[in-house]
């Protein structure tokens, strides 16, 4: 799973969000490392909806524009949990390898 997809699903794990809310949540979750553009986001949302990982929760008109809220489905939550566990295992393996060599040497990254 690509990082933006993981972050979109993570953003929706807490509550339904509209597109701009998802963009803001992804930026916060990634400490600003991942910035989603609207075209990229909506393409991903369409793909995730086709995969039944997310669904439209509701739509509302705000200042004459339709705002669509998305929610994580049960399948999406299960998929996110599996991916989070996979990443945890990878991080644990990396930490074990670093411990076996005596940790990271101080210095520039």
UniProtKB/TrEMBL annotation:
<dbReference type="Pfam" id="PF03551">
    <property type="entry name" value="PadR"/>
</dbReference>
<dbReference type="InterPro" id="IPR036388">
    <property type="entry name" value="WH-like_DNA-bd_sf"/>
</dbReference>
<protein>
    <submittedName>
        <fullName>PadR family transcriptional regulator</fullName>
    </submittedName>
</protein>
<dbReference type="InterPro" id="IPR005149">
    <property type="entry name" value="Tscrpt_reg_PadR_N"/>
</dbReference>
<feature type="domain" description="Transcription regulator PadR N-terminal">
    <location>
        <begin position="8"/>
        <end position="81"/>
    </location>
</feature>
<dbReference type="InterPro" id="IPR052509">
    <property type="entry name" value="Metal_resp_DNA-bind_regulator"/>
</dbReference>
<dbReference type="InterPro" id="IPR036390">
    <property type="entry name" value="WH_DNA-bd_sf"/>
</dbReference>
């Amino acid at each position: 799973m690509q990082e933006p997809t993981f972050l979109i699903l993570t953003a929706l794990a807490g509550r339904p969000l509209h597109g701009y809310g998802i963009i803001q949540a992804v930026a916060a979750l990634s400490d600003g490392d991942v910035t989603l553009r609207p075209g990229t986001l909506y393409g991903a949302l369409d793909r995730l909806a086709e995969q039944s990982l997310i669904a439209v929760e509701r739509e509302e008109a705000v200042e004459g524009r339709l705002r669509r809220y998305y929610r994580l489905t049960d399948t999406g939550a299960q998929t996110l949990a599996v991916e989070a566990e996979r990443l945890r295992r990878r991080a644990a393996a990396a930490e074990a390898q670093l411990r076996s060599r005596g940790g990271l040497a101080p210095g520039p990254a």
